[in-house]
Write a structure and sequence with these properties.
28% of the residues lie in helices and 23% in strands. The longest helix is centred in the N-terminal third of the chain and has 14 residues. By secondary structure, it is α/β, with parallel strands linked by helices. It contains 16 helices and 24 strands. Bound molecules: adenosine-5'-diphosphate.
């Protein structure tokens, strides 16, 4: 027997319909590339997304076409997403921090038919457009007054394009499994691979991210997603915020500490989200200016491990609750969020702090297990660690054009490439990316644990740990530090600070000081670059072993 409920496809435009009907006057505030702060409402977002949807045919854009976007977090970028997705086209976000060759590869692989870009990125696309034969039109997301003199093919002004569009456009009723978004993983090994989201996966993912034990979004919140829309869907805030009717604050191109602080304060932001490097800049700014942070209630930190020292700084100094989160492009991206659950009252403060530092637990719709290399599941005891595998309606089942072939195990689980523990309460803790874990004497050392400990040293601004070849132990850890301005601790000072806080055999064999730690396009420490830089490094312990 079939259920007798309505067939109501989970389409992303339903989120906009809801927001404009029930939260129509809630504001979206954007810092624009042109300079000024722009304000409008969900009603406006809805109308202008429809205006765009009604005119894209003029550009030859139709159902199933992949359309590139390279833009900051702002109102026009949201209109482009909703407008394209609503007609069955696929918004393909490009990260401007990628190298030109990676951009060429990705755009050609995806076969982007048209391309929407912010003014900032005109030079990037001008330089590579000759290698991008599939793109017929470049739409510059600005008004006539700001249109640049550009060689971009069929350069079109966004505001002129949508000016005659229909704000009452009727969305077509698509199948909920229709593709709507695409994002390539940075591919630290091999070529980047395209992850293709569907309307259904995006709506389900947004719903589960709103839950009280996840991000707990409310219409009374003012949300600032600092995490870019070109990095794993801005962690769903473009869908989840309108779903809940929260005010949105979009930071545009400026993500330094002072600019972020200005918006947090003037717009009374209650919730924000980004990778740890952004918060490092904000915390430094706050330290320097002694400014308060009275409105910010919670901050979601993920994308790479959030050092416990950062959680402490937010919570103790500013009363801001940190939600440590983990996820990946292939998971839309949220996989776990660290909030306390019911039934933990018996735990001591120290035990709760141990949980707080973890990456968290999955919301409904994410299944998770850890396995050994033989594929057998490992115990959920907080000690055993193994390959972290996931399954769910917003987890990829294949890459675009089937790159990489079969990516699921026989039970339909996707191997995340991360190594983690799962504890008895369901909390997951990342030990490392499997390729970054340091293999010493047949045992594993977590680079993340060592980095977290090193940055707790008052003079260390940022730290990275990589494995260096060692004749006796296979690999030994090298700690690489960037120091805070005006400090000059010795290697021995740092090692002494770490002594007693970790197993003796985990202790780095050496400490190197550098001016800047290289980061990837998604804000992670680039271990690949560091391994390259330190490939001939000889540890002081090597001679002793020989
Ligand atoms: P990329 O394209 O750079 O792989 P993703 O954002 O998809 O971009 O990266 C996902 C990976 O980032 C995860 O597999 C994990 O290794 C790492 N990661 C994300 N969040 C965390 C976290 N909170 N702690 C540790 N690692 C994290």
């Amino acid at each position: 027997m079939e259920g007798l409920m309505q067939d109501w496809p989970l389409l992303v435009h339903t989120v906009l319909d809801h927001a404009s009907t029930y939260h129509g006057d809630r504001e979206i505030v954007s810092r624009t590339v042109e300079g000024p702060i722009h304000r409008y409402t969900y009603k406006d977002l809805n109308a202008r997304s429809k205006q765009l949807a009604s005119v894209v045919e003029k550009l030859g854009i139709k159902h199933g076409d992949v359309i590139g976007t390279m833009a900051w977090n702002g109102y026009r970028h949201m209109e482009v997403w909703y407008g394209l997705m609503g007609v069955g086209a696929i918004a393909h976000t490009l990260n401007p921090r990628l190298f030109a060759e990676q951009l060429d590869y990705i755009i050609n692989h995806a076969e982007d038919k048209a391309f929407f870009l912010d003014l900032t990125f005109v030079p990037i696309l001008e330089a590579i457009q000759d290698k991008l034969p599939t793109i017929e039109t470049f739409v510059i997301m600005t008004d006539e007054d700001h249109m640049p003199d550009t060689s971009l093919r069929n350069a079109t002004c966004y505001e002129t394009l949508i000016a005659d569009g229909d704000p009452e456009f009727a969305w077509p009723r698509l199948d909920e499994n229709t593709a709507c978004g695409m994002c390539y993983t940075s591919g630290t090994t091999g070529n980047p691979k395209g992850v293709v989201y569907s309307h259904r996966s995006n709506v389900l993912h947004a719903l589960s991210s709103c839950a009280g034990d996840a991000v707990a979004l409310k219409s009374t919140d003012a949300i600032m997603p600092v995490v870019p829309m070109f990095h794993a869907n801005a962690w769903s805030f473009v869908y989840s915020s309108p779903m809940c009717g929260a005010k949105m604050v979009m930071p545009g191109p400026l993500m330094d500490g002072a600019s972020i602080y200005e918006l947090l304060e003037t717009e009374k932001v209650t919730l924000t989200a980004a990778v740890p490097t952004i918060w490092l800049m904000l915390l430094q700014h706050l330290e320097e200016t002694k400014a308060p942070l009275p409105h910010l209630e919670r901050v979601v930190i993920g994308g790479s491990a959030c050092p416990p020292a950062m959680i402490e700084a937010f919570e103790k100094n500013y009363g801001t609750d940190v939600i440590h989160a983990w996820g990946m492009t292939e998971m839309s991206p949220l996989g776990t969020l660290c909030t306390f659950k019911g039934g933990l009252d018996h735990l001591s403060e120290d035990e709760l702090w141990e949980i707080k530092k973890k990456q968290g637990r999955p919301p409904y719709s994410v299944e998770m297990k850890i396995t050994g290399d033989d594929g057998n599941e490992l115990p959920r005891d907080g000690v055993a660690f193994g390959n972290l595998k996931v399954r769910g309606p917003a987890v990829a089942r294949a890459y675009f054009k089937n790159e990489g072939g079969e990516i699921l195990d026989e039970d339909g689980f996707f191997d995340t490439g991360d190594v983690s523990t799962l504890d008895e309460y369901g909390y997951m803790n990342i030990t490392d990316r499997s390729k970054d874990v340091i293999k010493s004497g047949g045992e594993w050392i977590s680079s993340i644990d060592l980095e977290n400990l090193a940055v707790a040293h008052p003079d260390v601004a940022e730290a990275a740990v990589i494995g260096i070849a060692h004749p006796k132990w296979d690999e030994r850890p090298l700690l690489i530090c960037v120091l805070k301005e005006g400090t000059s601790p010795s290697k021995e000072d740092i090692i002494e600070f770490m002594t007693g806080k970790i197993a003796k055999w985990w202790m780095p064999d050496d400490v190197a000081f550098i001016d800047e730690i290289p980061h990837t396009a998604t804000g992670k420490i680039s271990k690949l670059t560091l391994r390259e830089t330190f490939k001939d490094y000889e540890l002081p312990t090597v001679q002793a072993a020989e």
